[in-house]
Amino acid sequence: MGTEPAARSRVDPVALGRLLRPRSVAVVGASDVATSVGGAPLVLLERFGFTGEVYPVSPSRASIGARACLRSIDELPEGVDAAILAIPRASVPGALEALSRRGVGGAVVFSSGYAETGPEGAADQRALADFAREHGLAVAGPNCLGLVNFVERVPLTFGDASPNRRVRPRGLAVVAQSGAMTLALTYAAMAKDVTVTYAVSTGNEAVIGIEDYLDALVDDDATVVVAMLVEQIRRPAAFLAAARRARERGVDVLVVHLGRGERARAASVTHTGALAGDYAVTRAVLSAEGVVVLESIDELIDLADVVTKCPAPSGLGVGLLTDSGAMKTFSLDYGDARGLSLATLGEGATRALAAELPPFAVAENPVDITASGLNDPSLYARATSVLLGAPEVAGVVLAVMPGSPLQGAQQIGALVPVIAGATKPVLYAIMGGDCPLPEENVLAIFDADVALFRSPERALVALGHLVDLGEARRARAAREPLLPGATLGVGEGEALSEHAAKALLAGIGIAVPAGRLVNDVAGARDAAASLGYPVVLKVSSSDIVHKSAAGGVAVVEEPRALAAAFDGLLARVRVSVPRARVEGVLVEEAVTGGVEAIVSVRRDPSWGVVAVVGSGGTAVESVRDVAVVSAAAGRAEIRGALKGLHLSRALVGGAVALDVEALVTTVALLSRTLEASDELDEIELNPVLVREEGRGVVALDAVIVPRAH
Fold this sequence. Notes:
This protein has 24 helices and 29 strands. By secondary structure, the chain is an alpha/beta fold. It folds into four domains: about 15-260, 3-Layer(aba) Sandwich (Rossmann fold); about 310-475, Succinyl-CoA synthetase domains (Rossmann fold), CATH 3.40.50.261; about 515-590, Dna Ligase, domain 1; about 595-705, D-amino Acid Aminotransferase, Chain A, domain 1 (2-Layer Sandwich), CATH 3.30.470.20.
């Protein structure tokens, strides 16, 4: 997919492994100032209890603390695994040459002043990268904060870091292109008592890119989720290959992609480029490969927290238990606004809940146990047990008041035996914002391995994402074999008229209106008489894509109006597009009934083939009711993309059910066809008429764009 090879890595994987999991570390530019760039790594290596060999390199110091300093890199023993370069940019090339001579596996380059500064810095960065690849050096950065291996307690950074409070068997790796955000994400995860396995700041990625780190971390047994803050995916095919391997190994990849403004693609002559913004395309393709694309940093950390601590949900329905009537109402409103599926309890769960609640409480989801829990803390546990036992409930959010320290302790003491080790996700949200909680209460929840939130909104969103993640896994597991793609031959890259495009598409099973290409009024009369009135007249020209805007479309209701409509259409076109080559006028039957949609597929230069589907017609760009779908998506995923559109309500909400499945088939068929047709860049049907169920869809207009050479 895309223009680059999907190789697993562009850096020697053995060298990268030595950098990520070193047994020996050199600190070049070592300092005795603990807060300096050259001093902090030594302090951190001591704090983490790194048990391997550490070699400070400093020409001006005989020792730092209890460690003797080497005067130069050339004094290092052969085969040190990793080196930290805390030195000025001008000294980096010579240092890399010396490291290569000593057989060092990799280096972390803190220095800035490279590609981020302009052409001269970019040239220096290319030279650094060329040397590293030629000599098999795994170089992190430049312009990075470094990395930390928390599993084996190896900090190769000058950023403040501390070991995990608790080491769990399921952990989180953090990867960000920003050093500051790498630290921020790590701090946020640790504050939620998440076990962090790695924290990687990729910097300028001269040699090692985010794709390489992801590919390497997928093989780490302690890492079950990778949280990534991304500004640019430089090698899309390699990233997708790594994401595919992550999915196969059961590692969840969560991404927040920055810089996602909807820039229209100027190269596109159809609507597709304007509708499929860069971020929408990236999101669609990543999602098809199992990557969870999130909108905020809070969502990234919250979902990472619940993935590391919660079992996978088995369904869609969310349960909520609270001791506040207002919170119950809020959760209903919030669920509607966010599209969160709140479970409707069955008869068995309703009866069991009614048996536990006070008589004046309503036995329904969301569950409000009222203030009765203050007098009887076991009520929290009994009601939660009912929710967890209900087959229609996929997971539970506990949104409760903190109470006094004693009340909080009693509540937690009652709940922990029920929720610790639960077979369904449980998120514990203690309301009250940032009001302080007794440390022993917080630790009791953490020690139960339960995700703790201070915001019920964030807890609901996190559980919603976890439910969506489970549903996406099931959809991919049940993904049907992809349709075979037909090949559309278009000759030597010449543009096609609508008439020619429809003839090709009809050959692969796309229904089009009956029609005939004519050159004069007499021919138009014969065609219309054969087709039956009303008919649609359209100018046929490979130079005119948007015929309505050029005045090149007319509807003729009866024979007497035909001649004037024919002549008027050609006159308007000659004025609006005077240089257009006109091959004739297409006379078509007027197909009516149903809903107008757009189905358009495009070859994205970075990500490969993507499809746009949504509300169609002449207002498509102003309405922008569309979804972007990867060519790799299955039928269930295409249906899922339609669900959030106004189009979906029109398809299923009318008096007559429309043929949604035929629309899904059309999206899949066009995607496969474009993938199989190397000489094409785009195929667009707009509008395509979705008719009554069983009657399929009809492409009222079609554009095929050959690949530019």
